[in-house]
TrEMBL record:
Residues 8-96 form the Phosphatidic acid phosphatase type 2/haloperoxidase domain. The chain crosses the membrane at residues 6-25. The keyword Transmembrane applies. It comes from the Eukaryota. This is PAP2 superfamily protein. InterPro entries: PAP2/HPO, PAP2/HPO_sf. It comes from Trepomonas sp. PC1.
């Protein structure tokens, strides 16, 4: 029971905090996904907006009030968080086994 609680708490910290940070950054930058841009869309639509480089704040108008949440990547941050946690756990287990 104690191990399960620690695991759940670690998972919340490991994925929850970075996830919250990513949501805040996505709302700040409001970068459109490529299919929502004039340059990369395969359809003609009045809702398309100009392409914006990564980590540049979107200053253009949003004609159709769509959500622009392309950058930073939530999947990448979650993968990095899990990878980092695995590295930490492996290094702790290696020290435990050697002692």
């Amino acid at each position: 029971k104690h191990l399960t609680l620690n695991f759940v708490l670690a998972l919340i910290i490991q994925l929850g905090f970075p996830g919250l940070c990513i949501l805040i950054l996505k709302n700040y930058f409001q970068r459109p996904r490529p299919y929502q841009t004039i340059e990369f869309s395969t359809r003609s639509d009045n809702c398309l907006v100009p392409f914006i480089q990564a980590f540049m704040k979107n200053q253009s108008k949003n004609p159709c009030n769509k959500r622009f949440v392309s950058c930073p990547s939530g999947h990448t941050s979650a993968t990095f968080s899990i990878f980092l946690a695995c590295i930490v756990l492996l290094s702790q287990n290696q020290n435990f086994i050697q002692n």
